Amino acid sequence: MAEGGSAPAVAEGGGALRAYRALLGAQARSQAAYRTSFVVDLVGNVGATVFDVVTVLVIFGVTRELGGFTLRETLVVVGLSSCGFATADLLVGNIERLPRYVRTGLFDAVLVRPLGALPQLLLMDLPLRKLSRAVFGLAVLLFALGSAGIDWTPGRVALAVVAPLAAVVFFASVFVLTATVSFYWVDSGELANSVTYGGRDFTSYPVTVYGGWFRALFAYGMGFAFVSYHPALALLGRADPLGLPPWAGWAAPGVAVVAATSAALAWRVGVRHYRSTGS
């Protein structure tokens, strides 16, 4: 079964954009129809990001440094991670429901429509309630950047803009990559979550707090060190205690492009080899 994005006529022109806008509009109207419930969801979704920040504050209640980083320096790491993950979760996070779509046969229905399968899945259940979490993550990042005593230069201003965007692309790629496993193993949800949410937790702290093979695998084997740790070092003007050169702090966009390319290839291969569940 081929992906619907392989150039059906409607997907090549303005008709596709109108169809995507219609899907997004329908989602927005349906989720906002019950305003009280929607507002409660908005407020409740801030909780996960708040706990990330509170956890760091609690840790610094009993210590002055964490992995060689002060509280204000660590908040830059937390801000980059929270902003990037929360925004990616808003835009792409619902792809983690792919195992359910495959199991119930909904993915079969998506494939026969003359639109790209991935955009359909993202728009047909876009969790607008998570908008508050993304806004809070951005607020944490702005506060951290403003209070860390950064010696601002044009280059660091550019990095402060590019690094969160690269983090969004990286986490979005992780969401898609881990979801594609369900094309081969439908019950892979827990494994995917361990990488996706484990990666979020990993990037919320300086990688110097981890050690051995665990740090080597997540930080450099999977690239999570370039989401928040190395950009934070470059913004703060600090040398890497682990010995990587200063340019590593500027590698986040390149790592994000590699992750996005890998996710796109994995998605195309997964869809091409997908076999219906027959439901």
Automatic annotation (TrEMBL):
Entry superkingdom: Bacteria
Pfam families, alphabetized: ABC2_membrane_6
Keywords assigned by UniProt, alphabetized: Membrane, Transmembrane, Transmembrane helix
Transmembrane segments: 42-62, 74-95, 134-152, 158-186, 207-227, 247-267
Official protein name in the record: ABC-2 type transport system permease protein
Species, as recorded: Micromonospora echinospora
Record lineage: Bacteria, Bacillati, Actinomycetota, Actinomycetes, Micromonosporales
